[in-house]
Design goal:
four-stranded antiparallel sheet; 2 domains; three-stranded antiparallel sheet; Immunoglobulin-like; single chain; alpha+beta; 1 helix; about 30% strand
Length: about 150
């Protein structure tokens, strides 16, 4: 017999899916309240080059004015609000999976950066933050001397 770790939220997620499937079989796809609240958080990639730390965050349907990026010490924070679109008067929803509301993500940076030289750009729903490394954090080649 194998030991299997218990994951309480995994069990809740599985239960929710089973209940949704059961309800969908009886009533079709309808908008039932979710058992477990889910928050939307933007997906993020963090990479490092010789000179920079680069953070890319997917923020579909948002505009640059709705996003705030800040650095405090070795922490980078991305926060904002994804606003719900206006509904038409004669529009009724049968099912909705899109999330709205406030979000905030913070990341500890792996090396020292020059926060005063940080740059951010926003294109096609992707936020790109480029943080130049401090001189001490840059990778340096050490020459090996032969004696």
């Amino acid at each position: 017999m194998d030991l299997v770790p218990w994951r309480p939220f995994g069990e809740m997620s599985r239960l929710r899916k089973e209940m949704d499937n059961l309800m969908n079989r009886f009533f079709g796809e309808t908008a039932f309240p979710k058992i477990v609240s889910e928050e939307w958080m933007p997906a993020v990639d963090i990479s490092e080059t010789k000179d920079n730390i680069i953070i890319k965050a997917e923020l579909p349907g948002m505009e640059a004015k709705d996003v705030n990026v800040s650095i405090s010490g070795d922490m980078l924070t991305i926060k904002g609000e994804k606003k719900k679109e206006k509904e038409e008067k004669d529009e009724s929803h049968y099912y909705s999976e899109r999330y709205y509301g406030n979000y905030e993500r913070s990341f500890r940076l792996p090396t020292g950066v020059q926060s005063n030289k940080a740059e951010a750009s926003f294109d096609k729903g992707v936020l790109k933050v480029t943080l130049p490394k401090v001189e001490e954090a840059k990778k340096k080649e050490i020459e090996i001397k032969i004696k």
